[in-house]
Write a structure and sequence with these properties.
It is built from 8 helices and 4 strands. It has 174 residues and is an alpha+beta fold. 17% of the residues are buried.
């Protein structure tokens, strides 16, 4: 991913998010944009095609988008500015902005066994990370035992594989 694309995606996400007055409005706007982008997914190749004229793309959107919602207008702007390819990045950045508004931290919890939501573990993790936790679980048999948690830039590795790697570094001096 190019750094410039991430920079642009953040700017577009902040602009779209800035329209919402409160967290509930932001959540509704986010959902509307996600639904629209999902509906337009089969046409993404057409909307990103540099050979197709902008006028044709905008005419297509006028036919597909019946109303004048903020999400529809936003997508029209992206297409007009030749930035529709940034839509997945913008969507991710919008989710980050919404999470920040709501004080939510996303965490990926990988476990060696078949994972199941653990309320006590999530509560302790929320206390450790300082906020509400939106956890997703993933089965990772390579961990051997234990768990690994990633939330943003924080990685907590309490797996057997992680401990074996630490021991190997100590013994080899690397």
């Amino acid at each position: 991913m190019k750094q410039g694309n991430l920079f642009l995606a953040r700017r577009y996400a902040r602009a779209y998010d800035g329209v919402a007055a409160c967290a509930d409005d932001a959540r509704a706007d986010m959902r509307a944009l996600q639904n629209l982008l999902a509906a337009l997914a089969p046409a993404a190749g057409y909307l990103n095609n540099p050979v197709v004229a902008q006028v044709e793309k905008l005419a297509f959107l006028e036919q597909v988008c019946a109303g004048q919602s903020a999400a529809e207008n936003f997508v029209k702007i992206l297409v007009a500015q030749k930035r529709f390819a940034l839509a997945p990045l913008i969507e991710k950045e919008l989710q980050n902005l919404l999470d920040a508004r709501l004080g939510v931290k996303r965490a990926l919890i990988q476990t060696a066994a078949i994972p199941s939501p653990d309320e006590a573990f999530e509560r302790d993790l929320a206390r450790l990370l300082g906020g509400k936790i939106a956890a997703s679980y993933e089965n990772k048999p390579a961990l051997l035992a234990g768990a690994r948690v990633r939330s943003g830039d924080v990685l907590i590795d309490a797996s057997a594989l992680g401990r074996v790697r630490q021991l190997s570094k100590i013994l080899t001096g690397k």
